[in-house]
Design brief:
Blueprint lengths: L3 E4 L3 H12 L4 E5 L10 E2 L7 E2 L8 H4 L1 H4 L9 E3 L4 E5 L6 E5 L3 H12 L1 H25 L5 H9 L4 H12 L2 H8 L3 H11 L12 H5 L10 E3 L4 H13 L3 E4 L3 E7 L2 E7 L4 E3 L2 E4 L3 H8 L10 H4 L7 E8 L16 E4 L3 H12 L8 E5 L14 E8 L11 H19 L7 E7 L1 H8 L36 E3 L13 H12 L1 H4 L1
Parallel strand pairs: 1-2, 1-13, 2-9, 6-15, 13-19
Antiparallel strand pairs: 3-4, 5-8, 6-7, 10-11, 11-12, 14-17, 14-18, 15-16, 16-17
Helix pairs in contact: 1-11, 1-17, 4-5, 5-6, 8-9
Length: about 525
């Protein structure tokens, strides 16, 4: 009998299982999907191509120290650095210019100066120097249970007084206000705004400044893509669990969390297996967890599912197999190592978000292009390229009687057209296409409404309010021995892992209670 059952085998669930097994506890992770890793997984979509099913670029995870603490390199994890991490082309043909964001701040400022002038280059240097220590404090707060004290320390910083109040005000500003305060050239503002929008909220909303401010962290540690595909992280975590005596079961869904006397006592699976356990860590979507509790859901949480802000999706992905990389006129070979920020202006971002609010695919979506086969030749056949296009904002629920089964192909064509505008001839290089609309993301990855962040990343659903105030401390009140992890919980979505480590630490610290 395991001490702990972990529901799910996404990366946060596997991080939790790995820390529990490392601490000497008996652990079994049980996953419905026959593919390991949830949204951090890689499959063969086209012959000879290893294509990520969800996330591709790992940013936050590389700042956590989890890979080093769990010694994942010994279990096959190796990262290819994205350096530069951002490439933003503007204009067309011979008139095209591009801003390149390197890990090295000096090289980045040189690129900005060449396009936007000395003033904005100097302003960017000051911006990074200001926001790097701030973002490190926020990141430290995100690496532990959410408490008001940690939030205040992150926002006020060290010293308090007038400086602390100014810092707190900056955090509560919209990202657009922050960008307008620092920079003049709209091209630089657009590149930073589009990169800062990857969590979902648009940059005109309050308290989005940090979503742009944290980009300073990318000058400390490069984003990375696991060699062989995003799923290599999940494979390394599972290998670490097994090396410490734990087990990972795939293709057998947990159908209920069993309780006795308001304490968990195990789980039941679709195969009919009853797995007794002293504790359960639920790494699935919070709505799934509430369903798995059934009648054991405490009465004070009876309406919890209706209050969780799942939103209406965020975006869609188009996975391509091509014969060549996009031919941006301003690109150099290193440009294809970067996330390609394809957006003409912040007005385009606002227009796309307006379409989203109206319940229709954006007429001109902003696109994040990734050509990771330029870094890793194992994920595409010789002479071919593995391209991912992520675009926002695409609503899960469409208006006007539209359905994703009918409009997905047209929406994908619109995404590809944005690349074609900046890299003429790109469409003619495409040999394979796989479309992941918000509905497809829900169907394949178990993401309600296709929200890759599980729950909205707006201020009202973050920190000590994620996913709800009463569920914000990685626990379910009234059910002893049940812990929560995953993108539904603090600190939110993306390839992070901090939630899994925090949940494991809580379970280890409290094991005498549930034993």
């Amino acid at each position: 009998m395991p001490d702990v059952v972990v529901v799910g085998a996404g990366h946060n669930a596997l991080v939790a299982a790995a820390y529990l097994a490392k601490a000497g506890l008996g652990v079994e992770a049980i996953e419905a999907d026959p593919v390991l890793g949830g949204a951090v997984s890689t499959v063969q979509r086209f012959p000879g191509y290893q294509v990520d099913r969800g996330s591709s670029v790992h940013i936050m995870f590389r700042h956590t120290g989890i890979a080093e603490e769990l010694r994942l390199a010994e279990h096959g994890l190796a990262y290819d650095d994205l350096d530069p991490w951002g490439f933003a082309p503007f204009g067309r043909g011979d008139e095209q210019a591009a801003i390149t964001f390197w890990r090295d701040l000096d090289r980045t400022c040189e690129s900005i100066e060449g396009v936007c002038g000395t003033r904005d280059a100097d302003a960017y240097r000051s911006f990074v120097q200001t926001w790097l220590p701030r973002s490190r404090r926020v990141f430290e707060a995100f690496s532990h249970s959410p408490t008001p004290a940690r939030l205040l320390r992150a926002m006020w910083g060290v010293g308090g007084g007038r400086v602390g109040k100014t810092t707190a005000r900056d955090f509560l500003d919209s990202a657009d206000v922050l960008l307008d305060r620092h920079f003049r050239d709209e091209r630089l503002k657009t590149a930073l705004a589009w990169m800062g929008s990857q969590a979902g909220p648009p940059t005109h909303e309050p308290a989005t400044a940090e979503l742009v401010g944290w980009l300073a962290m990318l000058h400390a540690v490069s984003p990375g893509h696991p060699h062989g595909g995003s799923g290599a992280l999940s494979a390394a975590l599972a290998a670490r669990v097994r090396a410490d005596g734990g087990t990972v079961r795939l293709g057998d869904a947990v159908t209920s969390i069993e309780t006795r006397n308001r304490a968990v006592c195990g789980v039941r699976t679709a195969s009919g297996d009853v797995v007794p356990a002293r504790a359960v860590i639920a790494g699935c979507h919070v709505l799934t967890t509430l369903e798995l509790l059934g009648d054991a859901l405490p009465s004070q949480l009876a309406d919890a599912a209706q209050r969780v802000d799942v939103g209406n999706g965020i975006g869609m992905a188009v996975r391509l197999g091509t014969t060549a990389l996009p031919a941006y006129p301003a690109a150099v070979p290193a440009s294809y190592h970067a996330m390609q920020l394809l957006c003409g202006s912040r007005d385009e971002l606002r227009s796309a978000y307006g379409d989203f609010l109206a319940g229709r695919p954006p007429a001109r979506p902003a696109v994040l292009a990734m050509s990771l086969s330029a870094l890793d030749d194992t994920i595409a056949p010789p002479g071919r390229q593995n391209i991912t296009l992520w675009a926002q904002w695409h609503p899960y629920r469409l208006s006007g009687g539209l359905h994703w089964n009918d409009v997905a192909r047209d929406a994908a064509d619109t995404v590809v057209e944005r690349v074609e505008e900046l890299a003429p001839g790109f469409r003619g290089t495409i040999e394979h296409v796989h479309i992941q609309s918000p509905l497809d993301l829900e169907r394949e990855l178990g993401l309600p409404r296709g929200n890759v962040m599980h729950v909205q990343m707006s201020l009202a659903s973050m920190f000590a309010m994620r996913p709800l105030p009463e569920l914000a401390n990685h626990r379910v009140p009234g059910v002893r021995g049940l812990y929560l992890t995953g993108a539904s919980t603090h600190p939110g979505g993306g390839v992070f892992g901090a939630s899994g480590r925090t949940a494991a630490r809580l379970a280890i610290r409290e094991r005498r209670r549930w034993r």
